[in-house]
Amino acid sequence: MKRKFRYISAVAALNAMLLVSACSSGNGGDSAAGTNPSSGGGTGSSDKQVTLRFAWWGNDARHKATLAAIDDYMKKNPNVKIEAEYMGFDGYNKKLATQLAGNIAPDIFQFTYEWTVDMNEFMLDLGTVKNTLDLTKLPESALKDFGSYKGKQIMAPSGMFAATTFVNQDFMQKFGIAADTVWTWEKLIEEGKKIHDKEKSAYLLSADIDVINKLILQPYIMQKTGKGWVNDDFTPGFDKAQLQDGLTYLSNLYKSGAIEPFGDSTAFVGKMEQNPKWVKGEIGMLVDYVQSYDKYKQAIPNAKLGVSAFPESPGAKQSGNAVIAGTGYSIWQKTKYKEEAAKFINYMINDKDAAQLLTTQRGIPASTVAREELQQSGNLNADISKGLDMAVAKKTIAPNVVSTNAELAQVVKDSIQQLIYDKVTPEKAADQILKDFTAKLNEMKAK
Q1: Whole-number pLDDT of residue 447
Q2: 167, 307 in Cβ contact below 8 A?
Q3: I need a surface site. Which of 158, 188, 237, 367 has the fewest CB within 10 A?
């Protein structure tokens, strides 16, 4: 049941932010290159000649950066040759599964947590090479929630992302709002109403339908339930009263004038940086993923852009803002060179030279060593790290794959739009969502 579903889901929406560059197929094909495994970029500790196969997916930019890192590693570890096998994302899963089943898998391969149930038995427990592979520089939540399975550490996450609140600090100063304001959901309405009453062209917040669903409604409810959006048994992680409360909040958010009218913002789904009101400084904040910082800053070059903690209800049971670390490196359990493979992964995630070569091609580095190196060199904005660190510091529940289903999301988004346009009440919208949501979950469970 779950096994089939994981294959169907392929790349879940929450992981798509990390995979987006990968999914645009690069020059594909299998290419060979030499390389070297070393723990921190130092000279290899053995004179024994070793050849390691390393497979990954990505686009041309990722391929180029990875090949450069491989070359650097081999120069530092002349006893190791790394054969690069790279391609676009399409077909990677099927090819890797075939190789694993046929005992011809690469020694090291890029992996996503969504394939864990199907492939974990083929993967080395990285805990057995902990003296070579230092995972202490990665957040425990990333290792536990995305890299482990039944007590076995099967993946070393390479990158992470989470949502944050992007704040136009000039806007806030104009309306007398302190830069260090701690935002609750109710405070958004309270301050947003004051702003719009004072200046009708100004709105504290703007959001497209995807953000409204995933980064406002869902966290609002999950903070109160302390559960995931969907339970592992394919049942909703909320009841009608909790859903109705969240929908009532959304309705009040729009009616208060705190958020830009939906009809005006809907033209900028996935491209809110192009919203004229954001460009003109008439919107104070946006909720989005931390790696979106640059595009929002570029749209307001003369204003100061900052980040603040994700909105949270008083007494919240969790943040509802999951830190996603769904992609990383794994080792085939039948490799002849476990220590050398671990050494190479350690280089890829923890080495400063590797960090400069790989930059953010696999997301914002999960390793604090790599992230700090990029930040100090100016290759990673400090606010991006700040937004990520604030999310990491909060308790949250990692999303299961079921929660990311696009059809489930559409069920909710359809009712949200009817609610915003006053075609249904929060109660009626809650009834409709629960009915369709549950029906879809039952259908998925039966597969």
Answers
A1: 79
A2: yes
A3: 237
How far apart CA 164 and CA 112 sit, in angstroms, is 23
Residue-wise pLDDT tens digits, 180-191: 899 999 999 999
Cα→Cα distances 84→25, 190, 287, Å: 16, 55, 38
CA distances from 17 to 135, 327, 366, 381 (A): 23, 11, 15, 18
pLDDT, tens only, 281-312: 999 999 999 999 999 999 999 999 999 999 99
In whole angstroms, give the CA distance from residue 252 to residue 420. 9
Assigned token pair, 406: 């696009």
Please tell me the distance from the alpha carbon of residue 113 to that of residue 15, in angstroms, as a whole number.
9
DSSP state letters, 267-297: GGTT-GGG-HHHHTT-EEEEEEEGGGHHHHH
DSSP assignments along 140-190, one per residue:
HHHHHHHHEETTEE--EE-EEB-EEEEEEHHHHHHTT--TT----HHHHHH
Structure letter (DSSP) for residue 83: E
C-alpha to C-alpha distance for 12 and 115, rounded to whole angstroms:
11
d(CA 11, CA 167): 30
- In sign, the C-alpha dihedral spanning 349, 353, 359, 362 is negative
Query: How many other C-beta atoms are found inside a 10 Å radius of the C-beta of residue 45?
Result: 14
Distance of alpha carbon 312 from its chain centroid, rounded? Answer: 19
pTM of the model: 0.83
* Three-class SS of 359-389: CCECEEECCHHHHHHHHHCCCCCHHHHHHHH
For CA atoms 106, 108, 114, 119, give the dihedral sign: positive
Give the domains, in start order, of the chain with CATH numbers: 2-161+324-392 (3.40.190.10), 163-321+405-446 (3.40.190.10)
pLDDT-derived band at 98 (thresholds 50, 70, 90) equals very high
Angle at 126 between CA 125 and CA 132, to 5 degrees: 145
Q: Pairing state of beta strands 108-112 and 163-168? A: unpaired
CA distance 237 to 246: 13
- Name the pLDDT band for 93 (thresholds 50, 70, 90): very high
CA atoms of 345 and 156, how far apart (whole Å):
8
Report the alpha-carbon distance of residue 146 to residue 325 in Å, rounded: 6
The 10 Å CB-count burial string (b at 16+, else e) for 213-251 is bbbbbbbbbbbbbebbbbeeebebbbeeebbbebbbbbb
Secondary structure of residue 39 in the 3-state scheme = coil
Cα 315 from chain centre: 25
